[in-house]
Amino acid sequence: MIELRLKIFGSQSKTDAWHRINFHVIFSDDLSVETIRSQFISGLSSNYNLLPENQSFWNGVLTKDSLENFGKLIIQNASAEIKQSPLEVGFNSLNFTEEGVLTLLKKNHFFKEKYLTAIGKTEWEKLRWDASIGEKLNIINSVDFVFTASESVDAFSKSQRALESQLKNFVLLDCSDAHTFSTSKEKDRLGNCNLWVKAEPIFEGLKQLKYESQYRKQISISEPKKPFRIIESITFDFPKNTKLKNDQTNTEQSFCLSELKNEIFFSPYFTCIIGGRGAGKSTIINIIAEKLGEKTDFFSHNKIIIDDNTDVLKNYANTCIQIKGTNEIEFISQGRVEKLADSNHLTDLIFNERIRAIGNEYEEKEKLLLLKFQIINDSIKIISELESLNNILSSKRNSLDNDKKIIASIENESYKELSKKIEAVSNEVEQLNNGKNQYNQFLNNLIYLMAESEIKVAVDEYSLRLNSIIYEIEKIEEISKIESGYSYRAKSFPATDKKTSDKLLELASLKKQIIDYFTSIGSTPDSIADVGRATSNIFIIANEIVDLENKILNKKNQLLIFQNQIADLKDLASQCQTIITTRLQKINRDLDIENENVEKIKFEYYFNFKSFQSELHKQFYEYFKTYHKPSVSWDNVYWCLNLIEQNEEFLNLTYDQFIDLINTKSFDRNTLYSKVFLEIFEKKSNFEIYQLLVKKQIYNISGNVEIIGSYGNSPLTSCSFGQRCTAVVVTLLMTGMKPLLIDEPEAHLDNRLIAEYLVDLIKQKKNERQIIFATHNANFVVNGDAELIHILEVPKGKIYTEITSTTIENLNYRKSLLKLEGGEDAFKKRDKKLLSSISLG
Hints:
By secondary structure, this protein is of the alpha/beta class. The chain is built from 31 helices and 26 strands.
């Protein structure tokens, strides 16, 4: 780079000293120092009249001798004393005109497309608007860049805004200034630069800042962050004998990628894989997808095989394909664009991969909802169990009443005394048996719990304490550690077992005494048996009733606990809906498009009542299908159900209110389906179950979500196929964070849409998410500003693909890019200068 002083003075105010404007020329690294010296520096000249009427005139080229001569002339003709050497005076006094410098550069073929120009922002600002507006406008709009040495990122941003507000050339570059060493604290020190340029470190890379400065440069203290999830590279190691087999035609051919052995890298931002038909660009991108778990249709008929007909992707993928980087991608095959454009596939993707997949907020709420739905299922189970227990309890009470009546009819005191003894002994036997059963059940539960709870690697205080507790339990003599977990051997307690045996013998003796008594008074065998059964059972049934009552009470208490646990169900569902609508608002803001090639794309959330009712009816049938009668139509039963609207008000109805509502409805109660419907709801418990089923479905947000997309003023489902494809590709680009891989995105898109809109979307989004295209469309490659381009080709006379990796700024492979579909037009759109030095023949 060469810095020159121009014959223009700048001053910010009347009190500010006047300063020369510095003009910078940046030369291509293709030019040698000797060429710059001989063709540029030697060609610079400037005219100076040092006395009136050309009595002392200087017009020299830039050599040491000419500058020294210029200094001598100045010293000779100056009225003031000058203490500097002639060379210093000549050098410090030499200035040029901007027009002269630019003319020299433009007319010399050596410099064609080989230079860039710049001025300093601070010096330009010193040009006062009230002094020479024309000069101020001309000089900044004649250069490629404006340099500044900012104190900080904020200072640079302020300078950028100042230039933008004046609608001037604002390709502003932050550069360090060489006024002090890097160890200094002064602003203008070596190395004080916050400019990051995304380009090859060559002159052509710097030139790209002219065309894509918004996307190619960033001002920050530290290196700009790359997208979080990226595919770094892929490496192939296919055997030489690998074939590509077409199942439809039963033909085989050598696999074109078999000789690609070097690691193929991908830009964190935007990579394009280009090449002719059969070169393998789609194959590579589909292999990546298959390897990372995204199933495609690409290999459904074309199998990569080795000699024994083994499918390489199924059997040797880990051996033949190595991918570094993330395993999370979003892959859009050619066929998937069509599928997403069809019906509701795109809106399903919006929910499943944009709302559920963004962070873990929705997922966390959804898991809580599912837990509460399980509580509802458990509640329904308890209600069913309570119905069964109440039926058993009613039966037991009836049986007890009957036995009591039999016994009450016997007035003999001896019998009553024997009955009391039987009751006492029966209670003792039951208590002894209960103790033994609880002991065995506890040991059984304990070894199961220990096996489930043991932590193999304890890393915190909780897990350490848990393992220490388990260790202490292992010391119990009943517990044994075995290979598969734990086992137990219950101890025997002879004294207790003998006591139980003795009590059973005593009980049998007492029952025999009762039988002997009734025999002695002449009772019939049937009467004796009936009284014996009543005497034996009355105490057992009484205990069973108490046990049943306790079970019913416990289940009712559990039901109350469950009711409390799902009390916030509505609020939780509302939070899920809020997340959906908030996320859709963000998506809609991203898709708020102002472009004549694209209509506005929008997505809105609705509760899908049809889905809600369908699932409700299905679950209703599963719970109440036992009420089915031959030839009954369950659709008609559902019609009866729908007479009362299933909404949040329904959830607050009591059973009596529900029955009253049914009674107000007009329907033929003599039909078979009506009888089934009415029979079901004769039981209050069935109403409670149905109410819980309604509650579960009303708040099942994920199960009943409906997202409706629109394009312009029409629903997506009513739009043309081309419009839906546009909506698909735009939505995929503008939303989502995973690396986006698309195989030939141009297949269903208008080239004007690509050139005038989609390329700008790509440039906007590629800093946030990695994008990889297999494409033959030049606009994606060139005007999408791909950071890395892989050119695939099968050389003439060969069968295997060769790969060349390049960039837009690399002139050695520019012709390959021009061969792409619309290549010349794409480069012209970027800037006509890029074509001027390249033969298009």
